[in-house]
Amino acid sequence: xxxxxxxxxxxxxxxxxxxxxxxxxxxxxxxxxxxxxxxxxxxxxxxxxxxxxxxxxxxxxxxxxxxxxxxxxxxxxxxxxxxxxxxxxxxxxxxxxxxxxxxxxxxxxxxxxxxxxxxxxxxxxxxxxxxxxxxxxxxxxxxxxxxxxxxxxxxxxxxxxxxxxxxxxxxxxxxxxx
Length: 178
What we know:
Blueprint: H1 2-26, E1 29-34, E2 42-45, E3 48-49, H2 68-89, H3 98-117, H4 120-127, H5 131-139, H6 142-146, H7 157-167, H8 172-177
Antiparallel strand pairs: 1-2, 2-3
Helix pairs in contact: 1-2, 2-3, 3-7, 4-5, 5-7
């Protein structure tokens, strides 16, 4: 148990608000389940896609239970992978404020770096510091049509990402727990 607490603390210290936000957005779970993607993917932990990213020794079977330590290790690995991918593919992103950089990492975590790189107009706007255009391009994306209920209605994942980009602020759910 002590090792698990220290790993969890390490994740919180290293990634702070980003880790808190992802755990909220992805609904941390120890039991593998089918997500809502088409086709459905076996998912578990903190948004880890076992269908696309199998883990040796862990069967990608709905109902399989992960230990807390496995969830923490997968989360740390997946989060580190997303941060490294954003920095590697978008070197200018290191000049962004933490909230805006973390918005890119959130997208890379959820979509993979190849999914993030499809947001070409949004990324170009962010690179030149045009936050209004970047936010508009996020809302014009296929992801915005698939997730949430549209701009400014009920607060959801897309509203939180848009606020991080446009207003350079973390959502309240990240502030409360970080």
